[in-house]
């Protein structure tokens, strides 16, 4: 009983603390948009467009009506949902490339063959799953190997159900176990704790030297149908997150080499040093801070990246 009350107070204190952090993250930027809108200097954004369409706005620039509060919370949810997830996916990708260098070499060999070093990869390359099967397999494996959200959010069952002999009564709370689904050896083959893109590939009928030898195996459950959750609670940022993850992975692999740091934590220079990677699992499953080296693959690749930055108006 004492333990229970202690837990309750600790939890209440934590909830107040987290609520304060949440509010400090979402309220000031939203109020800034409202203020700038009143001054006619707000830049285009989701918040601005929603505020412009509000039916019952509070006329005071430093106050929010009920409707504006709802917009603020919606924008906040998008921000909170998207802030850590995308970057966690990229960190897992960097970890995988550093720890499994043969995978990086194979993906770069495919990109060199299909895209070449005269241009950067683009969305058209990515939309064509057949031309870059190994790259797609790397992307799938990143989402499977270390699922970003290991458990989907809790939901309530809306009618009695029976699953594999288990009775699940209406109103029961269930949490889909994304991690277990993506580690299923019956579906994905042995050693699911190893990063192995080839588990997604099957051989085509082509012969060596006659085009692609691999294709994505349609019999393996596509991890994007699992890693972003399910049903009405499915991640609303799924398509945006996938687009940006895919182009980031393709661009990084095309133009850079990702390796372990060339010095160990004691400052000694070593040729191959793979730091110990620790994953921390909570709402998000993410690697603890780690070091890695990211270097351009050649002068041609440097020129391509500089050119792309100039096109975006970014001087470097
Ligand atoms: C690789 C990146 C991402 C992954 C793996 C991911 C994964 C997930 C998962 C597993 C859920 C729970 C779904 C469920 O319970 O069925 C979720 C919910 C959510 N995600 Fe994402 N997400 C990602 C990126 C994003 C981005 C970029 C945004 C926003 C722009 C976003 C916004 C949200 C929101 C708002 C929810 C809550 C939905 C609800 O409860 O109804 N996510 N995400």
TrEMBL record:
Pfam (any one): p450
InterPro entries according to UniProt: Cyt_P450, Cyt_P450_CS, Cyt_P450_E_grp-I, Cyt_P450_sf, Cytochrome_P450_fung
Keyword Cell membrane: no
Pathway the protein acts in: Secondary metabolite biosynthesis
Metal-binding as UniProt keyword: yes
Requisite cofactors: heme
Top-rank taxon: Eukaryota
Assigned keywords, A-Z: Heme, Iron, Metal-binding, Monooxygenase, Oxidoreductase
Family according to the record: Belongs to the cytochrome P450 family.
Name of this protein: Cytochrome P450 CYP2 subfamily
Species of provenance: Lentinula boryana
């Amino acid at each position: 009983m004492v333990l229970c009350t202690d837990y309750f107070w600790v939890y209440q204190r934590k909830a107040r603390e987290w609520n304060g952090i949440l509010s400090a993250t979402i309220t000031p930027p939203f109020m800034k948009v409202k203020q700038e809108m009143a001054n006619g200097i707000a830049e285009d954004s989701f918040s601005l467009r929603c505020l412009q369409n509000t039916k019952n706005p509070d006329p005071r620039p430093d106050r929010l009506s009920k409707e504006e509060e709802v917009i603020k919370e919606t924008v906040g949810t998008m921000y909170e949902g998207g802030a850590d997830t995308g970057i966690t996916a990229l960190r897992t990708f960097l970890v995988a490339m550093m720890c499994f260098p043969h995978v990086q070499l194979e993906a770069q060999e495919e990109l060199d063959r299909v895209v070449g070093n005269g241009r950067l990869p683009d969305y058209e390359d990515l939309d064509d799953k057949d031309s870059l099967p190994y790259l797609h397999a790397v992307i799938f494996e990143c989402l499977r190997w270390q699922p970003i959200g290991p458990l989907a959010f809790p939901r309530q069952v809306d009618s009695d159900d029976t699953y594999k002999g288990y009775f699940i009564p209406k109103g029961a709370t269930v949490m889909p176990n994304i991690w277990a689904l993506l580690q299923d050896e019956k579906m994905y083959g042995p050693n699911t704790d190893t990063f192995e893109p080839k588990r997604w590939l099957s051989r085509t009928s082509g012969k060596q030297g006659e085009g692609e030898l691999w294709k994505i195996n349609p019999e393996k459950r596509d991890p994007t149908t699992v890693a972003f959750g399910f049903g009405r609670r499915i991640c609303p940022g799924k398509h945006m997150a996938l687009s940006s993850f895919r182009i980031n992975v393709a661009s990084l692999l095309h133009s850079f080499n990702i390796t372990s740091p060339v010095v160990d934590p004691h400052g000694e220079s070593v040729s191959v040093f793979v730091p110990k990677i620790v994953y921390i699992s909570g709402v998000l499953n993410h690697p603890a801070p780690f070091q890695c080296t990211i270097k351009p693959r050649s002068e041609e690749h440097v020129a391509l990246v500089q050119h792309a930055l100039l096109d975006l108006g970014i001087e470097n």
